[in-house]
Design goal:
single chain; Ribosomal Protein L22, Chain A; two-stranded antiparallel sheet; two-stranded antiparallel ribbon; 32% strand
Amino acid sequence: MDLIRGVSVDEAFNTLRMTRKRASAIVAKLLKSAVATAGERHDTEAEELYIKRAWVDGGPMRKTLWPRPRGMATRKRHRTSHVNLVVASYEETGEDET
């Protein structure tokens, strides 16, 4: 998320495509959805948008028991996360595209 925060949408797509992280495909899909939603609701083009805020929060955790030796068990935590992305237009904020 630090790689794409504050950059234009086109540059973010290029960065995510070239990044070899497992989450980059998920973030790219989320970014594509955010751009489509902004275009539908506010009638803006993808070239006019940049990523204003991007963060990841912890989501709900599913806990299961994991068998261990001698009849014991430990708790295994299956973690999830919430990925949040805010896109804005350069005209709305008055910032430059540089």
